[in-house]
Design goal:
Elements lengths: L3 E3 H8 L3 H10 L5 E2 L5 E4 H8 L8 E8 L2 H5 L2 H15 L3 E9 L8 H11 L5 E4 L2 H4 L4 H9 L4 E4 L5 H24 L4 H14 L3
Parallel strand pairs: 4-5, 4-6, 6-7
Antiparallel strand pairs: 1-3, 2-3
Helix pairs in contact: 9-10
């Protein structure tokens, strides 16, 4: 059975004034139980609902893995990420309900897997997201994603199990992709100047 809280206790937990809770009761925004003496008692389930806590999904965890190309997938990079994260989840006794894969640049905001992850968060289906590195989710703006997920009581755990060489190579590929995109818009994809700029950048960033 639900634990029942007094009006004062419920207001303290919810951070609202008693008059606000009374108004919610009158407007049907909260389910209130009345004692024999007519006093209000608020069920714990109602408090958790208003706080956005869903106990049935509190232990559900999603694993998110990403590589930038099918070549990396063929090399087994995607499988290695999954295996490492599954071992991490097992060690923490997590209930992994979803494994999401993306094969796309970390600069691509229209990834199918990332969209699916946001849907899980928006629908409160998970409480934790596990990734190897921050850049698995995004190259830029990680703090914004983290803050958004947090507003749904979803925590992002960074495991740092990725290979640094692979991460560096992917960053190089992303940089080349950015330069290629801008150069293509400026000079045209078939122009000699476009090819010269792109080749120059490739030579510069892969020189090491």
């Amino acid at each position: 059975m639900d634990r029942l809280f007094t009006l004062k206790e419920a207001c303290r937990i919810l951070g609202i004034h008693p008059n606000t809770l009374r108004k919610w009761d009158r407007n049907g925004k909260i389910r209130v139980v009345r004692t024999i003496g007519g006093r209000r008692r608020i069920p714990e389930s109602e408090i958790k609902r208003l706080l956005g806590i869903n106990e049935s999904t509190n232990n559900n965890v999603a694993i998110y893995v990403r590589v930038s190309s099918y070549d990396q997938k063929k090399k087994g990079d995607l499988d290695r990420q999954k295996q490492s994260l599954l071992e991490y989840a097992k060690a923490k006794n997590y209930n992994v309900t979803t494994i999401i894969e993306d094969i796309a640049s970390g600069l691509n905001e229209n990834r199918k897997g990332l969209s699916k992850l946001f849907d899980l968060v928006n629908n409160r289906k998970i409480s934790v997201v596990i990734v190897s590195f921050k850049d698995r989710l995004t190259r830029f703006g990680f703090k914004y994603i983290e803050k958004y997920f947090s507003s749904y009581n979803v925590k992002i755990e960074i495991v740092n199990t990725d290979n640094e060489k692979d991460a560096y190579q992917e960053l190089v590929e992303d940089l080349i992709a950015i330069v290629s995109s801008f150069a293509g818009r400026l000079y045209g994809l078939r122009s000699h100047r476009y090819k010269k700029v792109v080749e120059g950048v490739k030579e510069l960033v892969t020189d090491n």
